[in-house]
Amino acid sequence: MTKFAKSALLTAIFSLALAHATAQTLTGTVTNGTTNKPAAGDEVILINLANGMDVAGSTKADSNGKFSFKVTVPGPHLIRAVHQGVTYHQMAPPGVNTADVNVYDVATKVADLSVTADVIRFQADSGTMQGVRLFVVSNTSSPAKTQMNDHNFEFYLPPGAKIEQVQARSPNGQPIPADATPQADKNRYALAFPLRPGETQFQIEFTLPYSGEIKIDPKPLYSAAHLVIVLPKTMQFTAANPASFQSMQDPNQGDTNVEVAQQTKPGQPLAFTLKGNGVINESPGETASGAAQQQDQQQPQARDNRPGGGLGVPIDAPDALQQYRWPILGGFAVLLAIGGWVVTKRQAGPSIAVPSAAKPAVASSEYTQRPSAPAAPPASTPAAKSSMLLEALKEELFQLEVEKKQGKITPADYEKAKAALDQTLDRALKRQS
Predict the structure, then answer these.
(1) Which of 268-277, 367-376, 377-386, 408-417 holds the top average pLDDT?
(2) Any bridge partners for residue 136, and if so which?
(3) Whether pLDDT at 69 is above 50
(4) Measuring CA to CA, which residue among 78, 47, 43 is closest to residue 60?
(5) Sequence-separated (6 or more) residues with CB below 8 Å from residue 149
């Protein structure tokens, strides 16, 4: 055998050995959360997130609900399980070799659905009013089921409103684009988006022609624990029925006024008039959280008598309106992602369990649902901090790839963001070494 042939053979053998050494097996179990039995026969798909949303493999859950994939490309992966036409997802970050997925039976109507909050933010300037309406929908069905039909969630917008953007967010997932379908009744829309067990959020951004004064009627279609109206302090709010709303002013909360109607009913007359102009510089989470704290200060004794503590702070949660925090704090996420990457690079121990929660999806573009996992350790421990950093890394990588897949970010911006992140990660890793 010639020297060249021997060299080529050795190179091939080395490459095969290296590929075999770096390949890992990713296993998991698909469990039907409705029956608490294995979801035998459900389709399971492996998606590679390292260079996009590439399908790396597919299989069927066996009689015990188990599945297995050979992972040859390093990096984060996504496990998608399809059950009765609805998809559920579980993240598998680098180094994790187990990813379990919870799925749920589908029903066209689930009785135990409720609207935790209906939050509407307004601001106006230059003859245009901008509105953002956020619904928080809770599915507490028992046994747990996913509701899905062609008119799964409906709502009204003011006459003349133009929808600019609609987003849907499954339990513990990231916001993704959704479609609002006009109904026969004027100004009424429907969202064909699964309502999985847990809390699903819908955010509708719209604009209205505005001449300095406008009458708004929310026209609630569901009972809601809270209807929250947020507007700049430079605008005036006048309710048609003043007794329906309570002002939650907080002198420390910046430039907003917050009006709250509690325990609203379908069809309840809740019209109000807005006057003046102004913009809001705070995030929806900041203003809603401020209203929660202010209500606690005003009604400390009434809290236990309101379902879920009203807008107050529940005993086991630092912020009762945490679920309203739609805007992703990109800068902090990037910083946490950098730290998470450094931490995971330095860890060579057992695989890390990643919290998640089951998530609805009908369209193939919905890649954000994750099933629930055991609670994380106290945030004061190093393990908890590492888990938080890893979670931020997972979300940042995932969101970036989702935006690229959905065309929400240009190739140039994607490459620029990825290059900047890679450069920063490289510098952080060098400092650590």
Answers:
(1) 268-277
(2) 117, 201
(3) yes
(4) 43
(5) 108, 109, 192
What residue spans define the domains of the chain? Answer: 17-106, 113-324, 330-353+374-432
Which of 1.10.3490.10, 2.60.40.10, 3.90.1680.10, 3.40.50.720 is the CATH number of 17-106? 2.60.40.10
Give the amino acid at 404: K
Please tell me the pTM assigned to this model: 0.63
Same fold, 17-106 and 113-324: yes
Q: How far apart are CA 195 and CA 175, in angstroms?
A: 14
Measured CA to CA, the distance from residue 26 to residue 96 in angstroms comes to 8
- The CATH architecture annotation of domain 113-324 reads Sandwich (2.60)
Residue carrying structure tokens 């390093």: 74
Cis peptide bond N-terminal to 143, omega within 30: yes
How do residues 169-201 score in pLDDT, each as one tens digit?
998 777 899 999 999 999 999 999 999 999 999
Residue 142 phi, psi dihedral angles, 5° rounding: -140, 115
432/139 Cα distance (integer angstroms): 45
Residue-level length of the chain: 433
CA angle 386, 176, 118 (to 5 degrees): 95
Strands (E), 112-183: 113-125, 128-139, 146-147, 153-156, 162-169, 176-177, 180-182
Q: Sheet harboring 236-239: ordered strands across?
A: 213-216, 272-275, 236-239
Report whether 59 contacts 44 (CB < 8 A): yes
How many Å apart are CA 67 and CA 217, to the nearest integer? 51
Q: How many CB atoms lie within 10 A of CB 175?
A: 20
User: Between β-strands 176-177 and 101-103, what pairing exists: parallel, antiparallel or unpaired?
Assistant: unpaired
Tell me which residue has tokens 């925090």.
Answer: 325
Tell me: pLDDT of 423 over 60. no
Distance of CA 191 to the CA centre of its chain: 16
> Both tokens of residue 100?
């379990």
pLDDT in tens, 380-401: 444 443 444 444 444 555 566 6
Does the pLDDT value for residue 269 go beyond 90? yes
| Token pair belonging to 352 | 């890390």
